[in-house]
Amino acid sequence: MVPSPAPPTPAPTALPATTPDADATTLSEARLRARGGDASGLAVLEKLAAAKTPTARRAAFTLAELDLAGGDRANARRRLFELLTAPEDALAFDAATLYARTFTTRADQAEAWRRYLSTLPHSPYRERALLERAEAIFDTNDARRRPEVEALLAEVQSQRLAERETRQLERIRYRLKTAP
User: Fold this and answer.
1) What is the model's pLDDT at position 1?
2) Once rounded to an integer, what is the mean pLDDT over residues 91-110?
3) How far apart, in whole angstroms, are the C-alpha atoms of residue 159 and residue 163?
4) Of 98, 130, 138, 140, which one's alpha carbon is 20 to 30 angstroms from that of 149?
């Protein structure tokens, strides 16, 4: 009897059966390979990002990071903007943070934070975003926008804040007080 040939091995970009653990493992491996410059890792990330799996949004975030690292701000912005409404609060906030950093002016960054805030994020991400927006507006050096900064700070001050946010609030208040 002639032995049957071994089944072909899948291409390196083929995705395994979809289970949360398999997807998480595939995502981790693809991230490592893509960050090391391996095109097959990038291809797996693209497939994961396009899939309807729990890891799709994390794969899209990684692709946005790689886009930024490669200087492709427009594509990174597109991916990050889509993640602003992610159901995972921490992922949405991380996307908002990177999204804002894709802009070079503080006015544009303030606008990016406004877009994120329009998604009505939950605490503590809302308070963090309010502080980031307030600081970006302050940094535009537009005295006409000072009341807007003060209103944002008043909204944040009425919330319970973690130590990090309390320090940021105090720093912005001090800057407001000492600014010309």
Assistant:
1) 53
2) 98
3) 12
4) 98
